Structures are given as structure tokens and as C-alpha cells.
């Protein structure tokens, strides 16, 4: 499986949309809450270029927008 990390905020409705999709489809990937500590937020900015969530990091490349992330997960992880 590819190296995937989802950066999110618990209060973000778009993050919740992605998380609901993941839950319904049994998708379990690494998740990092950017509100948890400053180093995670800084890591997102360093790797993704901006402070925007949700952000799915795919092999080091950032993907933003909840609908794009869900489409990617559908195509690559839903069985």
C-alpha cells in the first residue's frame, strides 16, 4: 500500500466528510490532527505548501479538496 497520511482538524466539516467516507468503507490510514500540536501543523505546511485541511499526502505529494480525496480513496482503496 502507498504511504498515505491524512492531515485534518476535528472541527472541519470537509475533514469530517472524508472521515465519514473512510469509516463507511473501512479505510484505515494514518491521520494527523493539526490542532494537536504546532509541529504537525508546521509539517503540513512544509510538505503540502499551505495550511489547508483536509490534505491527503500521497507518497509525499499533497492532495487537497475533500471531493478529490474521496475520489482518490474510491479508486485506490475501496474494494
Describe the protein's architecture and organization:
The protein is α+β, with helices and mostly antiparallel strands. 43% of the residues lie in helices and 22% in strands. The protein contains three helices and four strands; from the N terminus they run E-H-E-H-E-E-H. The chain has helices at residues 13-24, 38-48, 66-76; strands at 4-8, 30-33, 55-58, 61-64. Strand 1, helix 1 (13-24) and strand 2 form a beta-alpha-beta unit. Helix 1 (13-24) runs parallel beside helix 3 (66-76). It is globular and about 35 Å long. The mean pLDDT is 95. This is Glutaredoxin. Residues 2-79 form the GST N-terminal domain. Pfam families: Glutaredoxin (PF00462).
Structural class: alpha+beta
Strand content: 15-25%
Count the helices. How many? 3
Strand tally, please? 4
**Gap from first CA to last CA:** 13 Å
Could you give the order of strands across the largest sheet? 2-1-3-4
Major β-sheet, in short?
4 strands, mixed
Oligomer: single chain
- Our Rg estimate from Cα atoms comes to 12 Å
What proportion of the residues is helical, as a percent range?
Answer: 40-55%
Q: Average pLDDT, to the nearest integer?
A: 95
Q: What is the string of SSEs from the N terminus onward?
A: EHEHEEH
Q: Give the overall shape.
A: globular
The stretches of 5 or more residues where confidence is low (pLDDT under 50) are none
Domain GST N-terminal: 2-79
Protein name: Glutaredoxin
Pfam families: Glutaredoxin
Organism: Citroniella saccharovorans
Amino acid at each position: 500500500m502507498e504511504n498515505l497520511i491524512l492531515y485534518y482538524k476535528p472541527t472541519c466539516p470537509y475533514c469530517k466528510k472524508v472521515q465519514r467516507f473512510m469509516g463507511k468503507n473501512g479505510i484505515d490510514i494514518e491521520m494527523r490532527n493539526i490542532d494537536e500540536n504546532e509541529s504537525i501543523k508546521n509539517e503540513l505546511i512544509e510538505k503540502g505548501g499551505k495550511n489547508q485541511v483536509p490534505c491527503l499526502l500521497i507518497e509525499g505529494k499533497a492532495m487537497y479538496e475533500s471531493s478529490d480525496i474521496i475520489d482518490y480513496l474510491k479508486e485506490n482503496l475501496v474494494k
